[in-house]
Amino acid sequence: PEPTPLHAPTDGMIRKTVTALCFIACVVLHVPLMSLGGDDVRPFTPVAAVASQFVLSAKRGDDPGDAARVLMYPGELARGLWQRAVCATSKSSPSDRCDKPWPPPWKDSVDTDELKTYFRRVSKVFGSKITHVIAGSFFSVGAALLALVRGDTATLGLFSCVMIGYPIMTTRGTGVQPLWGLVPFLALAYMTTSITSQRQAAAARRRAKLRAKEGKAPSVATTGEGEAKKER
Questions:
Q1: What is the pTM of this model?
Q2: Which of 43, 70, 99, 213 has its CA 20 to 30 A from that of 229?
Q3: Quick one: pLDDT at residue 201?
């Protein structure tokens, strides 16, 4: 049989990479996690919550900056593509959303007033839990970047599950409810955590060190036989 390459991808590595890419897509493409009171209101997504923090000190009508555009543009691409598909298959009269160009222009992909209004809406819905939601949103974006770099989210995936999942599941209101994207988000965030694998790797390293030390240290029986031969 042909020898297996040392760096050949295993089934576990492929599964881990696919899971990490799915989690990244879930965050970057703004998969909706929770409705905020109506179909016309942008649903809650971690990236939109983070982008809204970049315009807190901006005045109405100011330029939001390229940092907010970088966060929002992939989601606007996916959102616009989905809207065009809905408009193409809908039998009702076309709405104003169907007239928007796709792909959206870079400069018009995000608006300061819209982000400030969005943050006020998120603050009103979550109330005292807004701090946990914003922290969890930053954890989610950081977890997506970490998954892109190293293939897992370490402990950030677990923090994202707790800091976002708990406020969403315990918040009630008119038109406020979890959406379909919450289940894959929480599942993928948990699946990309590497707490168990890190512990197993650390335990394996400790066992390897112990075996190395035992191999270097001479056994008592061998030492005793050597001394007996010298006395003879």
A1: 0.77
A2: 213
A3: 63
